[in-house]
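Incident log, support desk, overnight shift.

02:14 A customer reports that sequence design results differ from what the structure should imply. Their input is reproduced verbatim below. On-call engineer (initials T.W.) acknowledged and began investigating.
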C-alpha cells in the first residue's frame, strides 16, 4: 500500500483588478470593491467577447415576404 501525501493547495492568484492576494470570500478578487468594479465593467459592456458582428441570424432573412 502506498501512502499518499496530502496535496498542497494551489498558490493564491492575485486579484485581477488590483493585484493584491485574493481572499476566499471574494475569490478570485481580494475584496467586494474589486468584485463590484469587475461586475460594473461587465454590465457597462466594457468587456467584449470576440465574434463576428456582421453575421446575420437565419431568422433575419425576409425570404421576399
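02:41 Re-run completed on a clean worker. Output:
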Amino acid at each position: 500500500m502506498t501512502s499518499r501525501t496530502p496535496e498542497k493547495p494551489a498558490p493564491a492568484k492575485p486579484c485581477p483588478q488590483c493585484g493584491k492576494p485574493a481572499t476566499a470570500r471574494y475569490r478570485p478578487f481580494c475584496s467586494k470593491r474589486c468584485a463590484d468594479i469587475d461586475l460594473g465593467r461587465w454590465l457597462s459592456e466594457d468587456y467584449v467577447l470576440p465574434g463576428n458582428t456582421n453575421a446575420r441570424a437565419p431568422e433575419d432573412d425576409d425570404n421576399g415576404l
